[in-house]
Amino acid sequence: MKINTFRKNILIHKTSCLAIGKFEGRGEDGIIEEIDHALDGMISEVISKGDFKGKSNQTVVLYTNGKVAAERILMVGLGKRKDFSIDKLREAAGTAVTAVKKMGVSKLSTTLHILPSEMFNPAELGQAVAEGALLSNYSFDELKTDKEEKKNKLRTLSLVLPLNHKGMKELKAGSARGEKISEGVCFARDLISRPGNVVTPSYLADAAKKMAGGSDVNVTVIDKRGMEELGMGALLGVAKGSKQPPKLIIAEYKGAAEKDERPYVIVGKAITFDSGGISLKPSAAMHEMKMDMSGGAAALGAIKVAEALKIPRNVIAIVPSAENLPSGEACKPGDVLTSMSGLTIEVQNTDAEGRLILADALTYAKRCNPKAVVDIATLTGACLIALGTHATGLMGNNEQLKHQLLKAGEETGERLWELPLWEPYKKQIESDIADVKNVGGREAGTITAAAFLEKFASKYHWAHLDIAGTAWSGKDRPYIPKGAAGVGVRLLTRFLENV
Ligand code: BES
Ligand code: ZN
Ligand code: ZN
Question: What are the DSSP E strand ranges found in 341-468?
Answer without folding.
Answer: 344-346, 372-377, 392-396, 416-418, 436-437, 462-466
